[in-house]
Structures are given as C-alpha cells and as structure tokens.
Design a protein that fits this description.
By secondary structure, this protein is an alpha+beta fold. It folds into 2 domains: 2-53, Transcriptional Co-activator pc4, Chain A, CATH 2.30.31; 56-173, no CATH class. Helices cover 19% and strands 40% of the residues. It is built from 3 helices and 13 strands. Helix 1 runs parallel beside helix 3. The protein is elongated. The termini are far apart.
Length: 175
C-alpha cells in the first residue's frame, strides 16, 4: 500500500492505493481518497497506521452541552464566522466571542458567568479593558457553555473540533 498526503482545497486528503493482483500477475494500484478531517491517525511502533473515525455531534440546543464532559479536553480546531481561530484555548475563544460582540452590557445580560463591571483581578477574575468587564475564570464545561450562549446571542457562526479523553468530537453551534 502506498500513501501520499496532499493539501487539496483546504482539506487534508490522504491518497491511499490498495493493490489488486491481476490474472496475468500485474498489480493494479487502485486509488482511494480519504478525508483526514474525518479520522484520527494512530501510528503503531511497527509503522502501521489505523484511521479511527471521528465522532460527530451536532449541538442544536445549548442544554445539549450538558450531555458531554469537556474536562481535560483539547481544542483541535476552531472556526469563528468562517475564519480559522488559532488560539485554541477555551478562554481565548470566549474572549474572541466577547470581542466580536463588543458590548459589555449585552454580554452581561446573556452570561452564565460571574462578570463584574469594574476592574477586578483577584479571586480568579481577569479584566477586559475594551469591554469594561471583569470575568471570573471557570472550568472547560462552563466556559464552553458560555461560548455557545454568547455565540448564539451574537449570531456568531462557530465550529469546533475537540479531542476529549475518549476520541474526537466535532460540533457546530447552530445560530
């Protein structure tokens, strides 16, 4: 089997050739294209690889987030309003959503977090000067829920790929 990886139209595609022995002894290499966005590649010590299918979850309602545990998860990819966001931490994504909303009062009106309208930098708070709000840090589950709430209220398109403890999840916030 021969394997070539190309970047095709913004998607990582793996071209794999399976061999088929012909009646005359020739070997046909039949091309198979695999979209690597749909798989996690696991490489074994002997060089063999397995492509594990990524589980997709569609979150249509914010309360569906409670069905999943994002503790110790890692964000692999984040797309906000069709732009790739490279700071792949929950807090950074939340702050970017807040920046797009750009209205501290609106953020406070819709938040599930502890937010103050004064500069506070103790007890786990950090200050967002441009918005005039201090936000208390939270765990990944609550932060993700806040991200979805604020994205929905701000009509912000959001797509994330997250690696939890037991495999990949990809989901979209529906606005």
């Amino acid at each position: 089997m021969i394997c070539v990886i190309n970047l095709l139209s913004k998607l990582l595609i793996m071209e794999i050739y399976k061999h088929i022995t012909q009646d005359n002894g020739d070997i046909l290499l039949e091309k198979i294209n695999i979209n690597l966005e749909d798989y996690e590649i696991i490489t074994f010590n002997n060089g063999n690889k397995i492509l594990r299918n990524i589980n997709y979850i569609q979150i249509d309602r914010i309360d569906e987030i409670n069905n999943y545990n994002f503790t110790n998860s890692t964000i692999i990819r984040c797309n906000i309003n069709d732009i790739e966001f490279i700071k792949l931490k929950y807090k950074s994504i939340l702050n970017r959503i807040y920046e797009i909303i750009n209205d501290g009062s609106n953020i406070i009106k819709n938040t599930i977090l502890n937010i103050k309208t004064l500069e506070k930098k103790d007890d786990g708070f950090y200050y967002l000067k441009d918005l005039g709000i201090s936000v208390q840090g939270v765990n990944s589950n609550k932060c993700l829920k806040e991200i979805f709430i604020q994205a929905k209220q701000g009509k912000i398109k959001l797509r994330m790929t997250v690696y939890p403890l037991n495999g990949y999840w990809r989901f979209n916030a529906i606005n």
